[in-house]
Each structure stands twice: as C-alpha cells, then as structure tokens.
Amino acid sequence: MPTTLASGPVRVRVPATSANLGPGFDALGLALGLHDDVTAEVTGGGVRVEVTGEGAGELPSDERHLVVTAMRAAFDVLGAQPAGLALECANRIPQARGLGSSSAAIVAGVLAARALVVDGGQRLDDDAVLRLAAELEGHPDNVAPCLLGGFTIAWTEPTGARAVSLPVAPAVRPTVFVPGERGLTSVARAALPAVVPHADAASNAGRAALLVHALTADPALLLPATVDRLHQDQRAPGMPGTAKLVAELREAGVAAVVSGAGPTVLALSGVPAGFEAGTDWRRRELPTDVSGARVFRGRL
C-alpha cells in the first residue's frame, strides 16, 4: 500500500526524564515536568532546523540533528522518505546534563514522523515506537518515561524494549540541581567495570524493588530505597561536584541520586529550606509528568 504524507505541521511535546534513580540502573526512569517542543513539516526539498532555547547556536541545523536522524529512521519503517523537512525545536531540557535531552529528541523525531504519515499509527504502533526509540538511544530507561510519562520500569526482550508506567505517589516532589558543566553518557559508561561483585548486584536488586514501592506507595522509604552500589561511586571521580552534592543531600536526609549519567543531581524527597547547594548549581522543583509525549496538529 502506498504511503501518504500528511499536509501541514505537527507538534510533539516531550518531557525531560531522569533514569536509574539510584539502584535502578538501565531500568527505572521518571518523567519530569520540563518539556521540549518540536514542530515538523514536510517540504519540497532540503532540511532546515531552527533551534531556540537550550542548544541554540550549538546543535546542527541539518540532517545531522538528532531529531532528523530519528525521523529518517522512523520514515524508513513507515515506508516513506519526504524530500524535505522543516523543523522548529523549542528546547527547555538542558543538553548533556543527565535529563534525557537525547531521548527527548529521539522520541520527538519518531512520533513526528509517525504523525506526518496519514496511517502512521497503524504502520507503527506504540510498542513499535518504544522499540525503535530504544534501538536508536541504545537503552530504554530514558525513552520509556519520555513516551509513557510517570514512573517507568523498562526491560529488553529478544524482540526489543518493553516498559510499563506506574503512578507516582503525590508526596514525591522531585527537585533537580543542574550544574553549568556538561557530561557525556559515553564517558560515564566507560567508567563502569565489566564485572561487579555478586553482593553489590544483590543489594541493588533489593533496593530497586524497594524503590518501586517507595515511589508508588510509601515515599518515607525513599532514602534507603535509593542506595546504589553499581554505578554512582564508580562514576564519582569523573564528576566530583555531583558526588559531593549527592552525599551532602543524603546526609541531610534527602533521597538524592545522580540523574541518569549525570552531572545533574535529582532529589526525590523534600529539600530542607535552608539547604544551600552553592552558586554552581541551578535548583529547580519539577512536577512529575504523567502524560508522556504528546502530539498535536499545527503550531503553538
């Protein structure tokens, strides 16, 4: 069956995300109320990307842009490749800070491409969107909450990524501390050992299970539930400021973790009013995003 492209623009709104959440390495994620908006439209030729906000003047404005890469991958699956694309990216998610900016770009691109195909929903269902986005990102822990919203548990089957979303207890109040410096997931992953002690793996399994309960039903358990022995200490030498802030918050009784691969710090319980992180950090309280990625017709 021939593929028909839709006329007019589509807009995709995607949330920031925090992955790992301490012990839930490569599995747990949380969608946060901070969003990028991507408007996309098919044109007669060429690729044009306009970026405002985070990454403006730094990100590519052509085929190399990650949203375009994701759109092209999705169009391949959908059986169509438009001659040209025009994109407007209004970015609010900090780049390379551990808040899922790359996952947001990938999810936005896949969903925009699907929306620009008349029967895109039939050709690429929601499960297939998750599998493709996780394939492009390399792991599903950020793309899952970006797509589904809320608190997500993601895993990978032989057929690809799968995920479920669970409601977050109302008492969970995320706060992010975003530094000026950037980090790279590839560098953070390179710091991890290939083999971990059995006791550390067992400890994280128990804490991750407890974290599911704490986030959904009993936030009073968030501090013990966010103890990690697999990745945060191993990455600490590469981001000492992050490790120091996490330690200081936890000493103050706050369930703090490294957000994703860092260097942002995520606090899952209330931060004391008098706590000072220092001038190197931007502190921001964010609600949990319960909707996940959303698609609209037309521009803002």
From TrEMBL:
Catalyzed chemical reaction(s): L-homoserine + ATP = O-phospho-L-homoserine + ADP + H(+)
User: Does Cytoplasm count among this protein's keywords?
Assistant: yes
Task: Show the GO MF annotations.
Answer: ATP binding; homoserine kinase activity
Principal subcellular localization: cytoplasm
Q: In which pathway does it act?
A: Amino-acid biosynthesis; L-threonine biosynthesis; L-threonine from L-aspartate: step 4/5
**GO annotation, cellular component aspect:** cytoplasm
Q: Which UniProt keywords apply?
A: Amino-acid biosynthesis, ATP-binding, Cytoplasm, Kinase, Nucleotide-binding, Threonine biosynthesis, Transferase
One Pfam match, by short name?
GHMP_kinases_C
All copies of the GHMP kinase C-terminal domain together span 227-269
What PROSITE patterns does this protein's entry cite? GHMP_KINASES_ATP
Supply the InterPro entries for this chain.
GHMP_kinase_C_dom, GHMP_kinase_C_sf, GHMP_kinase_N_dom, GHMP_knse_ATP-bd_CS, Homoserine_kinase, Ribosomal_Su5_D2-typ_SF, Ribsml_uS5_D2-typ_fold_subgr
Where in or outside the cell it occurs: the entry states: Cytoplasm
Q: Which residues bind ATP?
A: 94-104
Q: What is its EC number?
A: 2.7.1.39
GO annotation, biological process: threonine biosynthetic process
Family stated for the protein in its record? Belongs to the GHMP kinase family. Homoserine kinase subfamily.
Cited NCBIfam families: thrB
General function of this protein: Catalyzes the ATP-dependent phosphorylation of L-homoserine to L-homoserine phosphate.
Name used for this protein in its record: Homoserine kinase
Q: Which organism is it from?
A: Micromonospora robiginosa
